[in-house]
Amino acid sequence: MKQSIHTKQGFATLIAVLVLTLVATSVIAVSLLVSTQTFQANANSREGIQARFDAQTCVEIALNKLKIDNTYSGNENISLANGSCTISAVSGTGNNDRSFQTSGTSQQSIARIWIDISEIDPDMTFTTWVEQ
């Protein structure tokens, strides 16, 4: 009879250890999954932010070139340290009513900015500045 009690206690202990191990393994697996998803989301966010910075860089380049020479026509691809950007063809001529689009690319992320300028000189006046 003594042996039967020890066997039952040993079996109960074994089951308890197995259940606790299963619970601990599940918690660790879920934690790893959440950590991996958070890491991926942060990486995607960084790429999106970098793409937006790249698009803004091309806006600044295009605006400076238009300010220096209002016949600037755009159509440029520019390599940057952490990505690239593109300036579309600049529509319009002269000092008034000019527009263009830029796009920035970083890894798999793309950001676009649309610009409409009502006047370049003496002070640049924007009618539209849309970031996507």
Automatic annotation (TrEMBL):
Record's protein name: Uncharacterized protein
Organism: Candidatus Dojkabacteria bacterium
